[in-house]
Amino acid sequence: MSTETRGTGRITRELDPVIRRIVFDQASADDVLAELRLISEVDLAHLVMLREEGILTAAKSAPLLHEIGRLRLSDFAALAPLPRPRGTYLMYESYLTETLGSSVAGCLHTARSRNDLNATVQLLRLRGPVSRLGEETLHLSDVLLDQAARYAEVPMPSFTHWQPAQPTTFGYYLAGIAASLSRDLDGILGATVGMQRSPLGAGAVAGTTWPINPLRTCQLLGFTTPVLHAQDAVASRDAILRLLAACSFLGVTLSRQACDFLFWLSPEAGYLSLPDECAGSSSMMPQKRNPFVLEHIQGKAAHVLGAFTAAQSAVMSKPFSNSIAVGTEAVKPVWSALDQITDAVILAGVMARGVKPNPDRMLRQAEVSVTAATEIANVLVRQGLDFRRAHAMVGSAISEAELHGDLRTSTVVQHLPLEWRPTQPDDLSVPAIAKRTRYGGGPGAVDVICRTLARRLKRGARCFDRMARSWTSAHAELEAAVQTMDQGYDPNP
Fold first, then answer.
1. pTM for the full model?
2. Class of domain 128-153+169-359 (CATH, top level)
3. Which of 361, 394, 363 is nearest to 379 (CA)?
4. Mean pLDDT by 10 residues, the chain (493 residues)
5. Domain boundaries along the sequence of the chain
6. In Å, how far from its chain's centre is CA 336?
7. What is the pLDDT of residue 1?
8. How far is the C-alpha of 70 from the C-alpha of 77, rounded, in Å?
9. CA atoms within 13 A on the CB side of 489
10. Residue 487 confidence (pLDDT)
11. Tell me, what's the pLDDT at 426?
């Protein structure tokens, strides 16, 4: 019988092997190692706090600090061959018990439960993936703003309902994607607020009677504050749910951009082209140059929405307390989802950098689609006509030009009643109109838009940097505290 089973008191037989295989044996060696690193980091902070508060003596805490430190230095090599019949944590705790004896190792769990430990470890585990996602999203935004400035005066038609609408520029479109991304980034940063609250100290569900100092463990683990309510701390995984929700918005933005690029790269549109390094061929059709990466972006972006739906569904209608369905099963999709959405962001950056506009094709399509029609009506209004009559007059002129098979801005103007024809038709060119539409955040305001978005991105970058520095500082403080308490301890007196 294993130490794990002997130490439980109420449980006297090994776990059913089918249950063990499905519940505990599916994690990879890398996953187990990553979990052990985080569990042991929480253990060190907890032990330092217990010692500082006088809850544990040096005789009890020093051997634990020393042995945990030794395991961390060896990447937990001694634990690698051990079975995990009831999970990683109990395997690790059993090893400490066999190594140090239960009178020492048994003190590790004083004033703590696996419930608050698991909730804390999950938040620590989010830090790396969220930092990487933030870094890549900031990089994508920089790429979009660079390209927006580069193509700020490349005219093209904008679209509503898949139909040509008004004159715009390719740079203006890219700046619009960057604007949407800036809000997606705000949403991710907003979700990180929940990552700053430490559940450690909440115990199983109702706190503890031990006089612990949760603020100290917050300080040592890089959190900003302990949670207010112990039951809420172990019952809720809303930090993960809010992060998935924010990432799903990011996924929608990426997917919509990919959708536009797929259309604009088609021969029918011909607005964009891709370099060979961003395209794929067909195994059968020699002529193909497939923008397959954009479809990967769409597929990867969908993963995070599926993860959010699965996680939220798993939490729904569960008791507001610690629950395996909430604390374990609901959060399982988050790690893969974060990897997928980050990869989608990276691919979107490569594609945004790689696409090249076809200015002649874009301009020609904007002209023959009469995207200048609204501005023609505006000219008539400035000449004294009300907008509704001007709108109808221009619509009729477009129909006449279309019947004559010559649909261009100049021919539409020629089909207006003589007394209302604009006297300065050159002002109705697509590039000129695009430059004039500064009001309401139009294409003529790309420079202002890009400068504003660049300032927002810098604020976002500073927020991520502050979080990373606080985590690094806390880790250094924890190491120093452990070293101080471990100093002078002799494991072989």
1. 0.91
2. mainly alpha
3. 394
4. 52 72 69 92 97 95 94 94 83 94 94 95 97 97 97 96 95 97 97 96 94 97 95 94 97 97 95 91 87 95 95 93 90 94 97 96 94 93 93 95 91 91 78 90 94 96 96 96 82 70
5. 3-110, 128-153+169-359
6. 12
7. 41
8. 10
9. 20
10. 75
11. 63
313: which 2 tokens?
């569904």
User: Which residue type sits at 136?
Assistant: E
How far is it, in rounded angstroms, from Cα 107 to Cα 50? 10
CA distance 151 to 104: 67
CATH number among 3.30.70, 1.10.275, 3.30.479, 1.10.10, domain 3-110? 1.10.275
CA distance 248 to 254: 10
